[in-house]
Write a structure and sequence with these properties.
The protein is mostly helical and 879 residues long. 58% of the residues lie in helices and 5% in strands. A hairpin with a 4-residue loop joins strand 5 and strand 6. The protein binds a DNA duplex (15 and 15 nucleotides) through helix 12 and helix 18. One of its GO terms (cellular component) is RNA polymerase II transcription regulator complex.
DNA sequence: CGATCCCGCCACATT
DNA sequence: AATGTGGCGGGATCG
C-alpha cells in the first residue's frame, strides 16, 4: 500500500527532475530539501550498496518497523522515501554508514546505486527463487516499478531478461507471472543445446584459438551434438508462443539477445565470454564491420543483460587478457551441467511445457533452434511424399511468416559468426602472418546471406525427397562409421553432419556448410585443430567428388572407398540414382522462390559463410544428413573422421601436409556446402566443395532459369565460386552454363567438384596454395576482382571469418562485385544477388560509410599482405 | 580515456 | 488515441 502512495507522491519525477548537478555540488549539504532534489534525493538510495541492503529494503517495506531502522540506513529509500519524505534520511545515511569513507559515496546516489544490477537484485528479492508450484505469483509492473522507485522502463529491462530464462512470463498487459528458478536448468539446457547448434563451432573455434587449443572441433561437436539433436530447440517461445503471430514485433531483441548471450556461455568451453565477441556474434544483420555504432549499442545492451544475469548469479564479470590487452568479459558461474534432462519433460513431447503459455516449441521466437528442423527431417521421411510439405509445416508448427524472421536470425547469426571468426582469424593472422586467404575472398553481400527463409516457408517441402534420402541413410548402415550413425541419429540434419567437421549450420536446414579444413588451414596456425582439417581437406578433396555424388546416391556410396577412386563412375551412378532427383527438378517453384532467397541469401551467405544458399528446402534435413554423411563418409568418412578425431592439435600438420601436397592443387578440400533438397529438389543435395570455382555458381543461376531446377545454388556472382552439384539430370543443362570449363565439370558431377576445386578459384585455398600467381586463370569473372588486393575490407573480413573455413570463398573485392553486378546483373539470379549485395552494402552504410571503409581498407591491405604470406606459407609449408 | 550503463526519447504494438 | 513495450543511443559516471 505504501508503495502506491509513495510512488505517486514522490516517485518518479522527483528523481529525474532533480538536476543532478546541483545535487552533487550540494552534495555537501545534502539533504534537505528537495528543492532541487537532484542528487540529494538520490542519496537516500545510496545506501543500498550492499545486496543485503536491498533485501532489507524489501523486508522493510514489508514491515514498518524494519523500515524505520533501515531508513536510517537509508536502504529502502526509494520506496520509502516517498513516504517518509526525504527529510531525515539524508542525514542519517551518512551517519549510519559503517564505513566512514563511504559517506560521500553513499550520499551521492552514485550511479551504482541505481544500477540495473542492483535494481534487479531488489526485484529478485521480492520473489522466491523456488516458489511453490501452487502459488502463482503475479507481478505488476507498475507496482514493482513504484516499489522499487524506478521507471517502468527499467523494469522492462529486467523482466525481459528474466523472461528469456523463463523465470517469469508475461501473462497480460502489465502483468507478469513469476515462475522462479524451477525451470531454469531446463531452460539452460535447452539453450545449451540450441547454442551448440548455433554457436558450438564458433565458440569452440574461438576458444581454441584464444585459449586452449586442446579442444577439437570434432570432438566438441560430437559431445554436444548428440544430445542436442533430439531435443526441441529452445522453446523459448515463452510467452510469445501463445501468439505465434506475435513474433512479429521486433522480436524483442533484448530477450533474444539474452538467450543468445547465455547460449554463448553454455557452449563456451571456458565459460568465459568477452563482451566484444558476444557483441559481434550477436549482432545480427549487419556485419560487424559495418557500424561501429551498432556494435556499441549491442554492447550496451549486453551490459544490461549482463547486469541482470549477474544479479541472478549466473555470471560474473571478469577480465580476460588477450594479445591486445585486457578485455571485459563475463564468466558463467551458474550451473553447467543440467541434470534434469530437459528432454524428458519436454524433449520428446514438445507439447509438454513447463511454462504455461510459452512453450510450444514452435512458437518460440527462438526458432533458431529450429525446432522444426529436426522434426522435419524425420517427418519428412515419413511423409515421403509431397504432402510432406504440409505436414512439415505443421510440424514445424509455424504457420506464419515468423519463420522468416527466424531464418533471418539464423542468417544474422551466421553472419555474425562469420564475422567473428573473421576477426579472430585476422587477429590470429596478425601474429603470424597468417592471413587467411579467405579473407581475400570477401563476400560483401554475404552478410545478408540470409537464410532463405522463404524457401522453407514457401516450399512445400520436399519431404518426399527426404525420404528417399533417408532411405539411403538408413541403408547407409553400410557405413559403419560411428560418426555416421551419430549423425543419422541426430535428427537434425545439421548436427549429424557435423560430427567431425566444423560446420556451419543454417537454421534453415537447407544449407549446411561443412568446413573441412579451411578454417583450420587458415587458422591452423592459431588453431589447434587446423591440422586435422588440413588432412581432411586433402582427403576431402579426394572424397569430395564422390561425396557429391553420393549424397543422394549414398547407396552407392555405400562403398565409399571405391567412389573416390571412381569418381566418374560414381558420378554417373549418382546421376543415375539421382535421376530420382531430377524429379525434383521438376519443381519449378523453387526456382522462383529460391532464386530470391538464394539470391539474396545466397549472396549473403556466401559472403558470410561462403555458403551458397540454395533454397532447397529446409524441410528435409534428413536428406542433408544423409547426404552429408554419405558424401563425406563414403569417400572420406572414415578418413575424415579419423582426421577429425585424430587430428591432434599437436601434429595436425603431418597429415595435412601430405594431403596438401598431394592435393596441392586443391588445397581447399574440405569444405562442402550442403544444400538440403527441397521438396521438389529434395532429391538433390548439393554439395559444394569449397574449392569450387566461382563460375559454376554463376552458371547455376543462369541455368536455373532454364531448368527451373531446384538447384538453387546461386552463388552470388561475386561469390560465385561455389561449385554446385547438380543432380545429374540437371547437369546437362547446367553444365554448359557457367564457365565453360567449370561448368562442365560441375554439371557432371561431383567429380567435377574436384576439378572445380582444382580449378583455381582464385580465392580459394588454391589461391593460397598457388599464391596469387595464377589464381585468376580459373575464373574469369573473378579475376577482375583480384581479390586479394582489393577485397573490400569488409568482405574480406567477413570472408575471412567465414571463409576461414572454406577456402572456397571467393574473394571478390567489393569493387568486383559491383562490376559484376552491372554486367551480370540481368537475368540470372546472380544478377540479383549482386544487386542486393550492393544494396546491402550500402545499407549498412559500409560502403557509404567512410569510416567503415577506411577500416576495411586498412584491413584489406593488411589482409592481403597477410594473405599472401599465408599463401606462401601454406604453399610452402603445409604445416 | 575507455569502460559502463543510466536515462528517457520515441517508435511501434496493443488496447 | 491512449497506453504498453521496448529499441536505442546520448552522454554521464566510473575506474
Amino acid at each position: 500500500e505504501n508503495i502506491f502512495d509513495r510512488s505517486r507522491m514522490a516517485p518518479k519525477t522527483p528523481i529525474k527532475n532533480e538536476p543532478v548537478d546541483l545535487s552533487k555540488q550540494k552534495g555537501c549539504t545534502p539533504e534537505r530539501n528537495p528543492i532541487t532534489p537532484v542528487k540529494l534525493i538520490d542519496r537516500p538510495q545510496p545506501d543500498p550498496w550492499t545486496p543485503t541492503a536491498n533485501l532489507k529494503m524489501l523486508v522493510s517495506a514489508a514491515s514498518p518497523d524494519m523500515r524505520d531502522r533501515e531508513k536510517k540506513k537509508e536502504l529502502f529509500r526509494p520506496i520509502e522515501n516517498s513516504k517518509q519524505s526525504d527529510t531525515p534520511d539524508s542525514l542519517q545515511y551518512d551517519v549510519v554508514d559503517d564505513s566512514t569513507v563511504d559517506e560521500f559515496e553513499k550520499q551521492r546516489p552514485s550511479r551504482k546505486q541505481k544500477s540495473l544490477g542492483l535494481l534487479c537484485q531488489k526485484f529478485l528479492a521480492r520473489y522466491p527463487s523456488y516458489p511453490l508450484s501452487t502459488e502463482k505469483t503475479t507481478i505488476s509492473l507498475d507496482e514493482v516499478a513504484s516499489i522499487l522507485g524506478v521507471e517502468r522502463r527499467r523494469i522492462y529491462d529486467i523482466v525481459n531478461v528474466l523472461e528469456s530464462l523463463h523465470l517469469v512470463s508475461r501473462v497480460a498487459k502489465n502483468q507478469y507471472c513469476w515462475h522462479g528458478r524451477h525451470n531454469l536448468s531446463q531452460t539452460l539446457k535447452t539453450l545449451q543445446e540450441a547454442g551448440e547448434l548455433q554457436y558450438g563451432e564458433l565458440m569452440t573455434f574461438f576458444q581454441h584459438k584464444e585459449q586452449d587449443l586442446e579442444y577439437k572441433f570434432g570432438e566438441r561437436k560430437k559431445e554436444t551434438i548428440p544430445d542436442s539433436q533430439d531435443r526441441p530447440l529452445l522453446d523459448f517461445s515463452e510467452p510469445d508462443c501463445t501468439s505465434a503471430s506475435a513474433n512479429s514485433r521486433k522480436d524483442k531483441s533484448l530477450r533474444i539477445m539474452s538467450q543468445k548471450f547465455v547460449m554463448l556461455f553454455l557452449v563456451s568451453k571456458t565459460k568465459i565470454v568477452t563482451l566484444d565477441i558476444a557483441a559481434k556474434i550477436l549482432i545480427e544483420e549487419t556485419q560487424d564491420t559495418v557500424d561501429h555504432s551498432k556494435f556499441k549499442t549491442k554492447v550496451r545492451r549486453l551490459y544490461d543483460i549482463a547486469n541482470v544475469l549477474t544479479s541472478l548469479g549466473l555470471i560474473k564479470k571478469v577480465h580476460v587478457t588477450e594479445e591486445r590487452g585486457r578485455k571485459p568479459a563475463f564468466k558463467w558461474i551458474g550451473p553447467v551441467e543440467f541434470p534434469g534432462k530437459t528432454d524428458e519433460p519436454r524433449g520428446h513431447s514438445p507439447t509438454s511445457d513447463p511454462l504455461p503459455g510459452t512453450q510450444r516449441g514452435a512458437c518460440a521466437p527462438y526458432q533458431i533452434c529450429a525446432t522444426g528442423k529436426q522434426r522435419f527431417t524425420r517427418h519428412a521421411s515419413f511423409n515421403g511424399a509431397q504432402p510432406c510439405e504440409g505436414t512439415r509445416r505443421k510440424v514445424s508448427s509455424e504457420p506464419n511468416s515468423p519463420r522468416q524472421e527466424r531464418q533471418d536470425e539464423y542468417c544474422s547469426k551466421m553472419i555474425n559468426l562469420a564475422a567473428v571468426c573473421r576477426q579472430k582469424i585476422e587477429e590470429d593472422t596478425r601474429n603470424p602472418s597468417i592471413t587467411s586467404p579467405l579473407s581475400l575472398l570477401p563476400v560483401p553481400g554475404d552478410s545478408d546471406f540470409c537464410v532463405n527463409p522463404l524457401p522453407q516457408a514457401v516450399f512445400p517441402v520436399v519431404q518426399g525427397d527426404v525420404p528417399s534420402l533417408s532411405l539411403p541413410n538408413g541403408i547407409s548402415p553400410q557405413a559403419p562409421h560411428p560418426s555416421t550413425p551419430a549423425a543419422s541419429k541426430t535428427e537434425n540434419g545439421k548436427p549429424t553432419l557435423l560430427p567431425n567437421q566444423p560446420f556451419l549450420c543454417f537454421p534453415s536446414s537447407s544449407l549446411f556448410m561443412l568446413c573441412s579444413g579451411l578454417q583450420e588451414n587458415n587458422l591452423r596456425d592459431t588453431l589447434p585443430a587446423a591440422e586435422d582439417v588440413g588432412k581432411r581437406s586433402a582427403e576431402a578433396q579426394a572424397a569430395v567428388p564422390p561425396a557429391v555424388c553420393q549424397k543422394r546416391s549414398s547407396h552407392k556410396c555405400a562403398s565409399p572407398s571405391a567412389p573416390v577412386d571412381d569418381e566418374e563412375p560414381a558420378a554417373k551412378k549418382q546421376t543415375m540414382e539421382e535421376s530420382d532427383v531430377p524429379l525434383s527438378l521438376v519443381v519449378p517453384k523453387k526456382p522462383f522462390e529460391s532464386p530470391k532467397a538464394e539470391s539474396t541469401p545466397g549472396s549473403g551467405y556466401a559472403s558470410a559463410v561462403h555458403l551458397e544458399a540454395f533454397d532447397l528446402d529446409i524441410a528435409s534435413p534428413a536428406a542433408l544428413e544423409a547426404a552429408n554423411k554419405e558424401s563425406t563418409k563414403p569417400l572420406n568418412s572414415q578418413e575424415q573422421e579419423k582426421w577429425c578425431q585424430n587430428k591432434d592439435p599437436d601434429e595436425p600438420s603431418p597429415g595435412k601436409e601430405h594431403i596438401s601436397k598431394e592435393n596441392s592443387n586443391q588445397p581447399f578440400p574440405p569444405q562442402y556446402l550442403y544444400v538440403q533438397p527441397t521438396a521438389g529438389l529434395s532429391s538433390f543435395n548439393f554439395l559444394f566443395s569449397a574449392n569450387q570455382a566461382p563460375g559454376a555458381v554463376s552458371l547455376a543461376a543462369s541455368q536455373l532459369p532454364s531448368l527451373s531446377v531446384p538447384c538453387v545454388v546461386v552463388p552470388s556472382a561475386a561469390l560465385a565460386s561455389f561449385p554446385l552439384v547438380c543432380s545429374p539430370a540437371i547437369t546437362s543443362p547446367l553444365s554448359p552454363v557457367p564457365d565453360g570449363s567449370f561448368s562442365a565439370a560441375a554439371s557432371m558431377n561431383f567429380s567435377m567438384s574436384s576439378l572445380a576445386s582444382t580449378t583455381p578459384v582464385f580465392i580459394g585455398t588454391t589461391a593460397v596454395v598457388t599464391p596469387k600467381v595464377s589464381p585468376a586463370p580459373s575464373v574469369d569473372p573473378q579475376q577482375p576482382s583480384h581479390p586479394a588486393l582489393h577485397l573490400s575490407p569488409v568482405l574480406a573480413r567477413s570472408c575471412g571469418a567465414v571463409k576461414l573455413d572454406s577456402p572456397v570463398c571467393m574473394g571478390h573485392p567489393v569493387t568486383l562485385l559491383k562490376l559484376q553486378q552491372p554486367s551480370s546483373t540481368p537475368l540470372t539470379p546472380k544478377s540479383i544477388r549482386p544487386a542486393r549485395h550492393e544494396a546491402f552494402f550500402k545499407t549498412p552504410g559500409s560502403l557509404g560509410d567512410p569510416v567503415a571503409w577506411k577500416k576495411n581498407e586498412g584491413n584489406q591491405t593488411r589482409n592481403a599482405s597477410s594473405v599472401q604470406r599465408r599463401l606462401e606459407i601454406s604453399s610452402t609449408s603445409p604445416d
